[in-house]
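Ticket opened by: R.M.
Priority: normal
Category: complex prediction / small molecule

The reporter submitted a protein together with calcium ion and asked that the result be attached to this ticket for the collaborator who will pick it up next week. Submitted input follows.
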Amino acid sequence: MILNMIKKMIILIFTMFLLSVGVAHLPAQAQQAPTDSIVFLPLISKGIPLPPADAASQRIQLPAGFHIRIFADNLGGKPRFMTIGPDGHLYLTLMSAGQVVRLPDRNQDGLADGVEVIASGIDRPHGLEFYDGYLYIASGDRVQRMQGPNQNGNFSALQLVTDNIPPPIGHSSRTVHFGSDGKMYVSAGSSCNVCEETDLRPATIMRFNPDGSIPADNPFANDPDIRKRPVYAWGLRNSVDFLWSPLGQLWANHNGSDGLGDDLPPEEIVIPVQMNKSHGWPYCYTPGVGVVNANEIRDDLLALPSGFTCEDAIPAIFTAPAHSAPLGMEIASGNNFPAEFSDDLYVAYHGSWNTTNVNIRDCKVERVILENGLPTGSETFATGWREDGKTCGDPSTYGRPADVIFGVIGEMFISDDAGGRVYRVVYGK
Ligand SMILES: [Ca+2]
Ligand SMILES: [Ca+2]
Ligand SMILES: [Ca+2]
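Result attached by the on-call engineer:
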């Protein structure tokens, strides 16, 4: 009886403490209209809100000092790629729903306020990026754009930028990013597991002007086959994401072929892409796992074309075990992560669905450590989505990371296309 009373007193005092700390750090707008019955505990040292513990924080493991929470839940239609708008809000593609949505956090409590559909009726929208007043969206067989957002958060209707990209046969995700040269780069995966493509656009990165026209310095700018004109670099079986490194190099990842067992070929996580070059597939792959400094070697499934050897292919400089399935990736930015973590490359590994038990590849966020602008190793950053002994493709999985980006204050967002969520990761003690 007395013990119970003491317990109740302690809980009451602790709750009052949380309320006072929480309200004191909420912005003025939120103080006027506090969220019913939820207490937000800010990370004291940073003034960054941290919502209460939830299902994700109970199961996902992170390095000491990092905290994960569900930012948005019950997102039907496969959340895939994300970007931050000029308004500071998070934009996300829902690939199988055909939608692009905005997940604003206007009251800055660390939780999305709702789901705002800004475009719909798109065939498999995947990559998206803001550039020069437009939101560009890569999907099925095209790139479209919308002007916006205006002061009311609205966008224009969708406009076609180009449909000179391959139809979504086989690998159907399409990714768009803009380079510092002001050109629009679009990746498209192969139409098959291992084959020679007749259409030269699959398994490439393509390059366009922002209006969809072909840059005069593209390798095949004047080719009689207009499908070839955007092709910039090839032999990239499925470069789901790419970015520009601290040294200004174009880095792409690449999902290797199936059918060579649990361990071959390694997944190519960092390929320093070169214009007008092959990067190996379907004839060659980068050997070894981790930091690599070697030529590509033969994948014996197809005969080499005449005049081509694996030494002609640009190899990856960093790889991961086969079937890791790298999807979205980004180098950390902003001021939230501590210095040791703030210049590294974070990659969403979708994990394996077809490996045997002891070789299961985890679905996780991997941290690729960069020193002097180059990868030197990697370690797990966030893990805990799959059930023990099961693959990430098993129906029992809690989720599978699909993309990683950083928000305006340097917080990390992770999308999850199996669990239908976006998570938010912050650092603070
Ligand atoms: Ca909110
Ligand atoms: Ca390769
Ligand atoms: Ca990215």
